[in-house]
């Protein structure tokens, strides 16, 4: 296990799922999903394809209304106080939409304005995310002409632009080459020094490197919630445990 994984939990709950449920007719995409992530923790959210990860993340962020249960970001109920919850939250959806005809500079500036950030604050944060996400070399290029890795970095930049306390990241390294994966992983480790992060990924080596906690979902239900070390001492042992708990191989 990497010693660099953030473990500075404070006890204050920053992400909470309470009996979150989402039904589509007779199909339960999520069934009474409950967990809490304290301030300062980086938690991995795992599960096979179709297990309910993205559905749960969309309910936590307010992008999808639950059939039952509730979600909270900080002290704010996402269903009844979404605007205040959104101020605390940065969300990177898997394959999130980007305005491909815009440059990272113009796209992020517009997002800052849409969030009601002041001009001086936007300028300062644009400089910060351009450096933090290593976007300087493509700052003035059209997003549609950027590589998958740089588009993913633009997505990460929009998630952290307003300096949120909480980050929910859905497959942030999906489709990236090994060098790009390392870069994004290092970025997550850096952000984990000051942020509370819920990270969905299929890469168990990534979980071992950056997460101190694992929440595992299968068939819409939580089947494991505990320290990363209890899932295994390395990616290989974690994959074995993953298979035991879900009956599915990591893909």
Describe the structure.
The protein has helices at residues 53-61, 82-88, 104-114, 119-132, 148-160, 178-191, 204-210, 228-231, 235-246, and strands at 13-24, 27-38, 42-46, 68-73, 76-77, 89-92, 166-170, 196-200, 213-218, 221-227. With 251 residues, the protein is an alpha/beta fold. It has a domain at 13-96 and 164-246: 3-Layer(aba) Sandwich (Rossmann fold). The strands form two sheets. Strands 6-7-8-3-9-10 form a six-stranded mixed beta sheet, with helices on both faces. Strands 2-1-4-5 form a four-stranded antiparallel beta sheet, with helices on one face. A hairpin with a 2-residue loop joins strand 1 (13-24) and strand 2. It is globular. It starts with 12 loop residues before the first strand and ends in a 5-residue tail after the last helix. The model has no long low-confidence stretch (mean pLDDT 90).
Short description:
This protein is an alpha/beta fold and 251 residues long. Helices cover 36% and strands 25% of the residues. The longest helix has 14 residues, at 119-132.
SSE ordering? EEEHEEHEHHHEHEHEEHH
- Corresponding CATH architecture of the domain at 13-96 and 164-246: 3-Layer(aba) Sandwich
CATH C-level class of the domain at 13-96 and 164-246: Alpha Beta
Can you say what the CATH homologous superfamily of the domain at 13-96 and 164-246 is? P-loop containing nucleotide triphosphate hydrolases
Rg estimate, integer Å: 18 Å
Strand content: 25-35%
The percent of residues in helical segments reads 25-40%
